[in-house]
Design a protein that fits this description.
It is a single chain. By secondary structure, this protein is an alpha+beta fold. The protein folds into two domains: 245 residues, Beta-galactosidase, Chain A, domain 5; 314 residues, Aldolase class I (TIM Barrel). The chain has nine helices and 38 strands. The strands form nine sheets. Strands 7-8-9-10-20-17-16-13-14-33 form a ten-stranded antiparallel β-sheet, covered by helices on one side. Strands 21-24-25-28-29-30 form a six-stranded parallel β-sheet. It has a five-stranded antiparallel β-sheet with strand order 1-2-3-4-12, with no helix packed on it. It is globular.
């Protein structure tokens, strides 16, 4: 019988094998047992230019220390004698009488010059006497991976299995597992250098494991993850565990509080969003693809909308800068001369103000174009080897990435000039900040950790909001929730970005946590795939989101579906999504429950039903079938 250390409270019994450091957890309320299993490469250690991956069982020495207080039991194991003399400390802690286990990994002081660069611990957690049903994964808006799901995920050639926290692959820094009798939610308390390794071969099972990656080349600081166990779990219960955690650490802020700090944002409730493009010069195509719509033409479009019954609207203006969409950043001024320059942009914004509409500009302070006047190699992020990123993917041609520590000055410069010139800005979209993985920078002039990057991005968002402007970014990545009032979109995860079949069974994990903390548009009429238009409408209704619409629609009939979505948003858009239920195994029938009623959707028949409140429908309503052109540039 292997020797083990033991911790116990009224909810959990935890035993830790003294040789392998594999832990076993027993839920005392249900007798469900769980086992952490070792990863083949638990600890990666770097010696100068070489590295080696080992397991904790390979260490020459271990020393254990147990501390018990009125509020906690804590076991710390110092693992020493790893290759190169590296040391790591692992701690397990149980609070007084709560059903969660906290596991902490930290570098331990030693005389070694070797660095621990990655730790995969604790390993995958699997039930021993219960049957897995599905993995709960906050990928984009959220999905469930059934235990025997037929599609492979993260195991094919070129497929990504590692999903960095606070990016599209892991909006929120947690995941979970639901079994026949129980389940758990695993929350990365230190999320900035955390990744979820998720692999699912065709037919299963799903393997999930935590990965602590290097911060500027080393483990650097303590990393912590908590596992909360829940009898009778489902994905709603697990999402609500994370919601309570987000509230406890101050990450969740109610929409009521956000409206109080910035009244402009309240005008988005029940609004339609109109994305328009001024100028587009696609340097990726030969000959260069060019499109142009003048500010005066856009102003005429806007002025027709009040007569069509559009009372609340937000205009999201792309391609307004000197070289148009996705070009020249951060040097976007002056406004596109061919479209009407400063005078045209000012008139356009004033027309929105007169109509009572919000008006915001798309802008970008991460992409750093090599042909921009501000470009300087001294401001780019540097990799560890001293090189810096270069690619040519977006319309503007060759670019790098500006270090977030260097970007703030350009945000202030742009907004100071826009406002001083008389552009009426009531909204803003700072692209990619709340979706692209946090950057690291090894430039000795401005070194930056991923956490530093987050704080710099948040500072820029907060600055724009401080100007009385409703602030948004691309997607609702967790740590930016306190800094944002709305976002651009949050689609379900699919085999392609906003294209193709869903991955797993989509469920609204983001909205179960943040529906009453962030305003979110539907991707209806703004998706990449027109074949998904009806499905996107159904999902937008169910999640009570704002509709995108077309500024060049000319009849009230064209706006009818958008009005239905906007009216429901006006009624329930600031309410909590209390619960979500799958009414069949395939996820075709789903129920979304709000404080005043519910929305039931049938994705097979493309219809929905609203019960309760003033927006209740008389039975089932079919999704609109009229085709719409894509609003995207390519």
């Amino acid at each position: 019988m292997p020797k083990a250390w033991t911790l116990q409270n009224e909810q959990l019994l935890v035993t830790v094998d003294q040789d392998t450091l594999e832990a076993r957890v027993t839920q005392l309320t249900s007798s469900v047992e769980w086992q952490f299993t070792s990863d083949p490469a638990e600890v990666t250690i770097e010696h100068a230019t070489s590295s080696v991956a080992v397991q904790f069982r390979d260490a020459r020495e271990r020393s254990a220390h147990m501390v018990t207080t009125a509020s906690e039991q804590r076991l710390t194991v110092v693992v020493s004698g790893l290759p190169g003399g590296a040391c790591v400390a692992v701690s397990y802690s149980l609070p007084g009488n709560e059903p969660f286990l906290r596991v902490e990994v930290e570098p331990y002081p030693s005389a070694s010059t070797s660095e621990v660069t990655e730790v995969r611990y604790p390993g995958p957690l699997v039930p021993l006497n219960d049957t897995p049903r599905h993995t709960v994964w906050p990928n984009s808006n959220g999905t469930l991976i059934p235990h025997a799901y037929s599609r492979a995920i993260g195991v094919g050639e070129g497929e990504r299995s590692m999903h960095m926290s606070l990016g599209r692959g892991l909006y929120q820094p947690w995941w979970g597992l639901v079994t026949g009798r129980s389940g758990y939610a695993a929350i990365a308390e230190t999320p900035f250098d955390f990744a979820l390794d998720l692999r699912h071969p065709s037919g299963g099972p799903t393997r999930t494991a935590s990965v602590w990656v290097a911060s500027l080349g080393r483990l650097a600081y303590p990393r912590a993850i908590r596992y909360t166990f829940c009898d009778g779990a489902d994905h709603t219960k697990l999402a609500k565990i994370y919601r309570a955690y987000a509230q406890s650490v101050g990450r969740w802020i109610s929409l009521a509080d956000k409206f109080a700090r910035n009244p402009q944002s309240k005008r988005l409730v029940g609004a339609m969003i109109f994305p328009v493009t001024v100028s587009f010069r696609d340097k990726q195509r030969v000959p260069m693809r060019v499109s142009l719509t003048t500010y005066d033409k856009l102003t005429r479009q806007l002025n027709k909308l009040p007569a069509l019954g559009i009372e609340r609207a937000y205009f999201h203006v792309d391609g307004w800068g000197f070289h148009g969409y996705d070009s020249h950043h951060p040097d976007v001024l002056p406004p596109c001369p061919e479209a009407g320059g400063w005078e045209g942009l000012i008139r356009y914004s004033q027309a929105a103000q007169k109509a009572g509409y919000l008006f915001g500009l798309h802008d970008q302070y991460r992409d750093y174009y090599l042909d921009g006047p501000a470009f300087s190699e001294s401001k780019v992020i540097r990799y560890r080897d001293g090189s810096y990123p270069q690619w040519s993917y977006w319309a503007g041609g060759p670019q790098s990435v500006i270090c977030a520590k260097e970007a703030y000055q350009y945000v202030r410069r742009t907004f100071t000039e826009l406002l001083s010139r008389g552009v009426v800005l009531t909204g803003s979209y700072l692209d990619v900040f709340a979706v692209v993985d946090m950057d690291e920078c090894f430039n000795p002039l401005h070194p930056m950790t991923r956490e530093d990057c987050y704080r710099e991005r948040a500072r820029m968002l907060d600055y724009v909001r401080s100007l009385g402007i409703a602030i948004s970014s691309e997607e609702p990545v967790d740590h930016f929730m306190p800094h944002l009032e709305f976002c651009h979109w949050a689609d379900v995860p699919r085999v392609g970005f906003m294209r193709g079949e869903p991955l797993g069974v989509p469920v609204p994990l983001h909205n179960l946590v943040y529906h009453d903390s962030l305003l979110l548009p539907s991707v209806w009429d703004y998706g990449y795939d027109p074949e998904l238009r009806r499905e996107n409408y159904i999902r937008g209704i169910a999640q009570v989101e704002m509709p995108y619409a077309h500024a060049d629609w000319t009849s009230a009939e064209q706006f009818a579906p958008a009005h239905a979505m906007a009216n429901l948003h006006r009624a329930w858009g600031t309410h909590e999504l209390v619960a979500h239920r799958l009414l069949d195994d395939a996820g075709s029938m789903q129920e979304f429950i709000y404080p005043e009623g519910s929305v039931t959707i049938d994705l097979a028949a493309m219809r929905y039903r609203i019960e309760g409140g003033k927006q209740a429908t008389d039975g089932w309503v079919d999704a609109p079938s009229e085709p719409a052109r894509s609003l995207h540039k390519g």
